[in-house]
Amino acid sequence: MKRRTLLASAAMTAGLALGMATAGFAMDKTKVGFVYVGPVGDGGWTYEHNKGRLAVEEHFGDAVETVFVESVPEGPDAERVMTQMALEGADLIFTTSFGYMDQTINVAKKFPNVKFEHATGYKQADNVSVYSARFYEGRAIQGHIAGNMTESNVIGYIASFPIPEVIRGINSAYIHAKKVNPDVEFKIIWAYTWFDPAKEADAAKALIEQGADVILQHTDSTAPLAAAAEAGNVIGFGQASDMAEYKDGPRVSSIIDDWAPYYIARTQAVIDGSWESVSTWDGIGAGMVGIGDITDKVPASVAAEAMELKAKLASGEYHAFTGPLNKQDGSVWLKEGETASDYGDNGLAGMNFYVEGITAEIPN
Amino acid sequence: MIKLEKRPQPSKAWTYLTPLLAVALTMVVGGALFAGLGKDPVVAIKTIFWEPLFSEFAFYYRPQLLVKGAPLVLIAIGLSLGFRAGIWNIGAEGQYIMGAIIGAGVGLAFYPMEAFYIFPLMVIAGAFGGWIWAMIPAFLKVRFGTNEILVSLMLVYVAEQLLASASLGLLRNPDGHGFPGSRNLRDYASAHNGDLIANTGMHWGVVAALIAVIFAYVLLNRHMLGFHIRLTGEAPRAAKFAGVNPSRLILICLGASGALAGVAGLFEVSGPAGQVSIDFNVGYGFTAIIVAFLGRLHPVGILLAGALMALTYIGGEIAQSKLGLPAAAIQLFQGMLLFFLLTVDVLTNFRIRLAKREVA
């Protein structure tokens, strides 16, 4: 009995090795896999990643085949989906949520010939790149508009998970809202989800009841905009996607993620054999972060200032985190004229503190 | 005219036939759904049911069936005991979470010490976590007559908040760059629930699930307690006359299902999942309810139902990536399974008669 199980497991190991060996050979068609955390119809985060996938298909035509699996939970299921894609011959796999980090690394170890690209994480390997966008640049513009537009001086913020990515967004929006409106106050609700229309709508309603007349969101559905439309006299912004269907309603602008150029470039690199593990963090300048049309609800002067801010952020003339800035506890973070560094103790990559003035606390 | 006539006793034959009929009906209607989405229904059904078992890469998928099926079976076995006695624990998801938090917490408390007794302690702690969480509705029901369905369900949401809190605070990885989630137990040998034989998917949770099936079988068929459980469900009045103590039964049934859900959570967090994270739970506790009923609340039936459910999960993922089927279509397909099972259940308790309309 023991011998038989031993043999069986040996056969399985051999099988896995064989699978990996065959998976490595690129056939004439390059196969690109995408693992999505939400449904492709979420109208936000996953919707934009899927637009990037479709752009890859359009750009390369028959030379590339893409596959995807949507609504994959961030756990062992993700690992299985990635393994399955690699076994079925994927050459390049984009894993498009922070929570896929360890799984991506684990699967990448088993398939050294398959290239992996993990969105918004920080763990790299020889065959794992990481990429993200400087969404906080878009948040700066959002904050500028929000600070000008609010009449109740209360801005509601629907946050997803307390990770640096989200905290950066809150800080950036707050700093720029405060700049134009010193009386502004932020109310923050943690939804602990990236996509859950019911929860997001509840959060929006709760914020509106607490007096917020501007809703910012770091979750992916259009539910908060729908809640804002229902309440009337409340404005919001498209998140991850333009959410243009709310243009006549509460949506005054949006932050748009544009992954298409990156996905096309990385696929091209695999085809050319020039793919290397890199860490990419692009913003407005590189076109990874876009700002959706500012509607007429926003006064022309404010819109013009917002566009100017956008141009300065794009050219690098202005950094969204420029001193003097203090941390929430009053200690100095950035001195006059100093800009935040990406990495290091007080760097943006690992940001886990609020700036001075925000009265909420980061949950822990 | 078609008439339903109540059978004097549930049909034995139909009890066994209805699950198969439900699967067959699901295949037909599901196939029509896939056809409506522009996919070849035969290929789609074959991808879901055949590929995980016999395709080129089955060597990888077969072990995954164990990984996916084990927690379902483990939880469903516990639930079935209560369900048989008419005690409805709907909150297994919460007990699963609490088992994972407390079990992993015990393991992490020892970090980085290596010792053989750490994992067994974690298993006990996991069982305790699930048990204590189930004791809340049990105690409230026994003491104040509250409804265990509502209380156990509501406690799922409390457990989810505790899970978020544990991942962000108490159990957060100090070397995690400020990101939520505990240390990965895979990197901690004493606390890791790995494959017992490499690449078989056979971890301790699978072993525990099989043991639970055997225990439940013996308990229900050979033990007085099992008899009491069945009697209470089938004939509560008779049970009272037979001297069954309902409070004791509530405590035992909820406690057992809680403990089993708790160890399922522990085996998952220390094995396939690896870490406590905010969205650690993916609905095993709820899916297990389907598994329990699909398996006719019978231990062996549950084992088969768990395997079938795991198959649709894994096959469903393959169908998504290979055929481009939307995830919602797969979920619909899984939902149909329970729907049809409940529908055809009518055949177990009723006879269909073609009768002429009687003139009054």
From TrEMBL, chain A:
<keyword id="KW-0732">Signal</keyword>
<dbReference type="GO" id="GO:0005886">
    <property type="term" value="C:plasma membrane"/>
</dbReference>
<dbReference type="InterPro" id="IPR003760">
    <property type="entry name" value="PnrA-like"/>
</dbReference>
<dbReference type="Pfam" id="PF02608">
    <property type="entry name" value="Bmp"/>
</dbReference>
<feature type="signal peptide">
    <location>
        <begin position="1"/>
        <end position="23"/>
    </location>
</feature>
<protein>
    <submittedName>
        <fullName>Purine-binding protein</fullName>
    </submittedName>
</protein>
<dbReference type="InterPro" id="IPR052910">
    <property type="entry name" value="ABC-Purine-Binding"/>
</dbReference>
<feature type="domain" description="ABC transporter substrate-binding protein PnrA-like">
    <location>
        <begin position="29"/>
        <end position="302"/>
    </location>
</feature>
TrEMBL record, chain B:
<feature type="transmembrane region" description="Helical">
    <location>
        <begin position="325"/>
        <end position="347"/>
    </location>
</feature>
<feature type="transmembrane region" description="Helical">
    <location>
        <begin position="65"/>
        <end position="83"/>
    </location>
</feature>
<keyword id="KW-0472">Membrane</keyword>
<feature type="transmembrane region" description="Helical">
    <location>
        <begin position="249"/>
        <end position="267"/>
    </location>
</feature>
<protein>
    <submittedName>
        <fullName>Beta-methylgalactoside transporter inner membrane component</fullName>
    </submittedName>
</protein>
<feature type="transmembrane region" description="Helical">
    <location>
        <begin position="13"/>
        <end position="37"/>
    </location>
</feature>
<feature type="transmembrane region" description="Helical">
    <location>
        <begin position="117"/>
        <end position="140"/>
    </location>
</feature>
<dbReference type="Pfam" id="PF02653">
    <property type="entry name" value="BPD_transp_2"/>
</dbReference>
<dbReference type="GO" id="GO:0022857">
    <property type="term" value="F:transmembrane transporter activity"/>
</dbReference>
<feature type="transmembrane region" description="Helical">
    <location>
        <begin position="301"/>
        <end position="319"/>
    </location>
</feature>
<keyword id="KW-1003">Cell membrane</keyword>
<feature type="transmembrane region" description="Helical">
    <location>
        <begin position="149"/>
        <end position="171"/>
    </location>
</feature>
<feature type="transmembrane region" description="Helical">
    <location>
        <begin position="273"/>
        <end position="294"/>
    </location>
</feature>
<dbReference type="InterPro" id="IPR001851">
    <property type="entry name" value="ABC_transp_permease"/>
</dbReference>
<feature type="transmembrane region" description="Helical">
    <location>
        <begin position="202"/>
        <end position="220"/>
    </location>
</feature>
<keyword id="KW-1133">Transmembrane helix</keyword>
<keyword id="KW-0812">Transmembrane</keyword>
<feature type="transmembrane region" description="Helical">
    <location>
        <begin position="95"/>
        <end position="111"/>
    </location>
</feature>
<dbReference type="GO" id="GO:0005886">
    <property type="term" value="C:plasma membrane"/>
</dbReference>
